[in-house]
Amino acid sequence: MTVNAYGAHAADKPLVALDIVRRAPGEHDVQIEIAYCGVCHSDLHTVRSEWPGTLYPCVPGHETVGRVSAVGAHVNRFKEGDLVGVGCMVDSCQACASCDEGLEQYCEGSGMVGTYNGPTLDAPGHTLGGYSQRIVVRDKFVGKVSHPEDQLAAVAPLLCAGITTWSPLKHWNVGPGKKVGVVGIGGLDHMGVKLAHALGAHTVAFTTSENKRADAKALGADEVVVSRNALEMDEHVGSFDMILNTVAASHDLDTYTRLLKRDGVLVLVGVPEHGHPSPSVYNLVSRRRAIAGSMIGGMAETQEMLDFCAEHGIVADIEMIPIQQIEDAYARMSRSDVKYRFVIDSASLATT
Fold first, then answer.
1. Which of 29, 50, 48, 44 is nearest to 131 (CA)?
2. Which residue, among 121, 140, 142, has the nearest Cα to 130 in the 3D structure?
């Protein structure tokens, strides 16, 4: 079926209205009428070919929520009318060790299939994302949403910003008695602060801006440190169990590794355009500290995160836009002019 969408035909072209075709649901598929789609910085990187390998036409969007409108014959977990979400991936090999462990994002077989720009048999040969009226997805890659329906728009960013921060927090056993830092106050970071606090950790937000102290406190930070203030940073040397670094720009990692306890870990989830300067080895070996990475989360983790957020009343802080304002949103996002996530009202696609 043909549906309305928004996408780009080239890296140097604006996003425009497109007609795209969605397949009829197969035996294991879920068809979803999209209500809202979050706007992630990855969308901008991909559309503009700032990351290699973009395929055009490119329809971005991987923070998608909506209502089930049809299910395949072998689908048991979902029925028509259910509120659901689709995140950053829509398939994987389902046969490798990582997939067997519910860590499909690290699929070692064919690799995970991204919600957009991933390989597919559907036309045009690569996946097309959530800036569209409808999506059809394999049932294993759909999450149940149990938040109240009036929170649905603010749930959408949980499907990327939420799971990207939840997965490392859970993997490194963040909870009561742990001291956790979150670097930055933005789309990913604000979810990291909310989740770390809700998990019971003593949560410290790092920001470069003095004027973001109140915002960070409002998000749930127990303390706020201005990273440009050397005295404030020195007060925390050797005290963190974990620091979650969401910054997607090249910077000095030694600034944060020295703040870790023995056996503490600095976890990188932001991917900069250029690599970070090489960190000091002494900072690591002197306290058995580690630098690690983490990428989104598996489907079991995603459902766990959605359920936790529903139970604790956690959603993203959003600004709603119609799809026709997406270029303005990209420009504002590039200069960090949003608190903290744009979300597209997919009803606006009906007028394209």
1. 44
2. 142
Q: Do the Cβ atoms of 204 and 236 come closer than 8 Å?
A: yes
Contact 195, 221 (CB under 8 A): no
Do 2-160+297-351 and 162-293 have matching folds? no
**Best CA proximity match to 246, nearest among 264, 224, 271, 218:** 271
H or E element, residue 226: strand 223-226
Residue ranges per structural domain of the chain:
2-160+297-351, 162-293
Q: What is the pTM of this model?
A: 0.95
39 close to 15: Cβ distance less than 8 angstroms: no
- The third-level CATH classification (topology) of the domain covering 2-160+297-351 is Quinone Oxidoreductase; Chain A, domain 1 (3.90.180)
pLDDT tens readout for residues 295-335: 999 999 999 999 999 999 999 999 999 999 999 999 999 88
CATH 3.40.50.2300 fits 162-293, yes or no: no
